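Standup notes, structure subgroup. Blocker cleared on the alpha-L-rhamnopyranose input:
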Amino acid sequence: MRSPNARRTCVALAAAASLSAALTACGGNEDDSASGARSADPDATVKTGLTVAFLPKQRDNNLYFTNADLGAKSAVEELGSAYEDFGSSSATDIAGQNAYIKMLAQQEVDALAVSAQDPAKLCTELKSAMKQGVVVVTYDSDTNPECRDVFVSQASAEDLGRTEVQLMAEQIGNQGEIAILSASRTAENQNSWIDYMKDELKKPAYKDMKLVEIAYGDDDPDKSVQEAQRLLQKYPGLKGIISPTTIGIEAAARVVSGSATYKGKVKITGLGTPNEMRKYVEDGTVEAFELWDPAKLGELTARAAIALASGQITGDKGESFKAGGMGEYTIGEDGVINLGKPQVFDKDNIDQFDF
Ligand code: RAM
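Run returned:
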């Protein structure tokens, strides 16, 4: 954590000298990317003794984020810094996320990693945290690009959206009514994947598939079950549900698995954790679904945050950093760092994965 004294010195320097000279003297983080005063030093030493805080979209009752946070914690500690995490148990608590961001900025953490519940509504607090010198990294679910330094993306949104439609199409022979059971209405990650799903469905190969509804379970298990049941009742001919959320897909699979009417008739695919979905693959409810390793996403986010706080990268396109055993990563368009390709799970490989 940077001391308040160091911060005051920076403010005084900024008042006395040219702004860019002062910002360079202060280590660069007081800058915002618009001024262009920062420059990356790939050989800068990794700073230790930093405080890195994680703010997942949903904490405590979502295995996906539990695993992501574990990956983050071990990377932060391996690099000699202190890890903290905060967050609400609800994925629709935007006011709660804003309150945490404000609190962490007041506490002068060095870096803050956020999976955003809304792309725009955290921006005022995030921008003010960045102005105070906090490195801001989004992971899993992005904000508008100007509200963070970089976004660590689990996979390309296009890949995820298109492959989920392809997985469903294979299972229903490219024919019939399908629905999407998403997380919250404002989640940037799910919304960007759904845009690509809609685009994929425009292709001639899917002319006999019809998307009848997009429902929202808010990453709440009970609400997701209710929404899955409602979709099944409302559309008696429904052939499949794509659920691009680990909470939603588990809920939809649970409903179908326990129903003599729907089991074997309605296909479920989307994004799930192998440990939560194994029983539905084993009992034949689910043929195939996909995900990335959330712990690796957390680890890469932590390493990117520390590379930023150490001055090795500033968030500009083309900059690279070494992410420990994960290898080297390069920042792409709009400050996006891509973890890699998602993994498809089915009965033949699911036992090889434990997360
Ligand atoms: C849920 C959350 C998360 C998403 C995964 C796939 O756990 O909505 O943001 O990335 O599903």
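Discussed briefly. Residues 38-154+294-340 form a domain with the Rossmann fold fold (CATH 3.40.50.2300).
Next: hand off to the docking folks.
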